[in-house]
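Continuing from the previous page...

OK, I double-checked the sequence for Valyl-tRNA synthetase against my notes and this is the correct one:
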Amino acid sequence: MRNVWMTLTSFALVSVAVAAEGKELPANDRYVCSWGAGTAARAQELKLSGVSLYAARQKLQTYKFTKGWMRMMAMGITEQTYDSPSRAKPATVRQSFYDDCVRFKLARK
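Thanks. Re-ran it with the corrected sequence; updated C-alpha cells here:
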C-alpha cells in the first residue's frame, strides 16, 4: 500500500510540474511584451546618445500609435529608462525587458 501511495504522489508532483512549465503566453501578451521591449530599447538608445528626457518625450508625441494605451505606456517606459542609471546596450535592455515582462505575465496567470 505504501508503494502505491508513493507512486501516486510522484505522478501527481510530476503532473503539477509539467502543467506549471507548460504555460504559454497568448499572442496579445507576447505582442505587448515585444512592443514594450522595443520601446525600452529605443529609449535607451536616445539616452545613451545624449538626448534629454524632454526631447525624447517630444519625439514620442510625433509617433503614430495603433492603440490608445500605447502613448502613455511608451511615456512611462521612457521615463523609467531615463531614471535608471544603467548604461547597458539597447539590445540588452530589450532582452531584459522582454524576459521580465514574460515572467510577469506568466506569474499572473
